Amino acid sequence: MLTVGSLLTGCAVGPDYAGPRTPNLPSQWSGKAASRHDTGRLDRWWLRLRDPLLGRLIEQAVDANPSVAKAKAVVREARATLQQTAAGLFPSLSGTASMTNDKTSAGSASVLVDSAPYALHQASFDSSWELDLFGGTQRSIEAASRAEQSAEEDLRDSLVTLIGDVAAYYVEARGYQARIALAMRTAASQRDTEWLTRSKYEAGSATAVDLAKATAQAASTEANVPAYQAALAADVHRLGILLGRPPDGVASLLAQSTPVPAPRMPLPAGIPADLLTNRPDVASAERKLAQATAKIGQAEADRYPAVSLTGSVGTSALRTGDLAKYSSVSWSVGPSVTVPVFDAGKRHAAVRVAEAQRDQAFATFHATLLTALEDVENALISLSRERIRSAKLTEAATNYREAARLSRSLFESGSASFIDVLDAERSLYSAEDSLIQSKVSAAKDYIALAKALGGGWVDPIDVSTPIIVDVNTGPHLREAFK
Question: Is 115's pLDDT higher than 90?
Answer without folding.
Answer: no
